[in-house]
Amino acid sequence: MTISKISDTNDKKHCVVLSHFFVDHGQPSKFEILEYAVDFYQKMNYYVVLAAHGAVAPSDSLVKKLDAIYWEEKIDRRELGRGHPKFCIKGFEICNERGYKHALKMRAEDIIADTEVLRKLEKEIEGYEMIISEQSS
Predict the structure, then answer these.
(1) pLDDT in tens, 4-18
(2) What is the C-alpha to C-alpha distance for residues 130 and 76, in angstroms, rounded to an integer?
(3) Model-level pTM greater than 0.90?
(4) Rg (Cα) of the chain, in Å, rounded?
(5) CA 89 to CA 57: how far, in whole Å?
(6) Distances from the Cα of 7 to the Cα of 23, 48, 95, 98, angstroms
(7) Tens digits of per-residue pLDDT, 41-54?
């Protein structure tokens, strides 16, 4: 079964895809970390997309905080250790469908805590179609 929700953008200028995230049985604390990241990007007025998977589904209260979600209720072990490309693509497709020309993609538990850096990044990317930053190979 797949959980899916896509809301209107409500004029949010920027979009973030949260991915690289799965929850197995006995790991409910992962949702607490995720909720912190969701709250952070919501406060920054981002359209927040979660594209992830797990044996445990996110709570209704967490789903309500998200602007969009694509969640497979089974861990796709083929995605682990590879950067979860299937889920990243799903997240980008949602952003594209909502009309976003740019999307910030983050590991679901990560934030850019220095909001000045985040705002500078938003301004810097305006003239580009794509910027790729790779931390692993």
Answers:
(1) 777 777 788 889 999
(2) 27
(3) no
(4) 14
(5) 20
(6) 24, 10, 11, 9
(7) 999 899 999 999 99
